Amino acid sequence: MGASVGIGGLIVGTSLMVVFALAITTLDVRMDSSLDALDSANDPLPSFTIDDATIWEGAVVSLTIVDPGAGYTAGTLSTAVAGGFTATFNVDGSGGIVNPVTITSHGNYSSPPPTIQIDGPQPGVTSVATITATLGTVIHTNVTNNGPVTLPQEEVWFFVDGTNARTMDILTTGVTSNWYSGETVSIEWRGFGSSTFDTMAVSSHGYNLARALD
Questions:
Q1: Phi and psi at residue 37, in whole multiples of 5°?
Q2: H helix or E strand, kind and range, residue 7
Q3: Measured between alpha carbons, how far is 175 from 191 in angstroms, rounded to an integer?
């Protein structure tokens, strides 16, 4: 009889110890969760602005050298009609053939593509070069980090009409990987083909902002 009582008491005691241990563990988990929530609540929140957002649906997005010509010296390109396009070119070899070409301003035109011309004078030309343009969509935007948080560029997302998600580090060519407080970043977003869009949005760490494209 005494042994049975002893064993029963041991079982009850062990059960109470298990229950107590579970209760302590639950309290620890709740305490840790509460502390994490308090730490999170004290973290500053990001904030930024979309200063402007312009869509150019007739931008010169690429150039094709159909005939590189000969006898040129390095110079600039423009268009026969106004539209804002500019480019520079170098020459390859002693023959003065045009190659390569770098677009410095995409401009904005209506279809068909404008005629590309080499700016003069070019008195040594022995064979006239021919360069053609391909039009497409380019979005120009300036965004400013006006909050207290420095944001990694790879964690700042850009969208147009809820699609084409890209991170800031993909859209910029800067030497830094961060978007610092007070910094304005200029972005020239290409690669849309001839698509058209209405709205651009930026999102990072739960802060979201949208603006209509002009």
A1: -65, -40
A2: helix 2-42
A3: 22
154: its two tokens: 């790879």
pLDDT, residue 30, reads 56
Report d(CA 212, CA 9) in Å as an integer: 75
CA 141/CA 51 separation, integer angstroms: 7
d(CA 99, CA 90): 5
Same-domain pairing of 109 and 178:
no
Do residue 153 and residue 84 come from a single domain?
Answer: no
Residues of the domain holding 88: 58-135
pLDDT in tens, 7-60: 444 444 455 454 444 444 554 545 555 445 445 456 789 999 999 999 999 999
Residue 18's pLDDT is what?
Answer: 42
User: pTM value?
Assistant: 0.73
Number of domains in the chain: 3
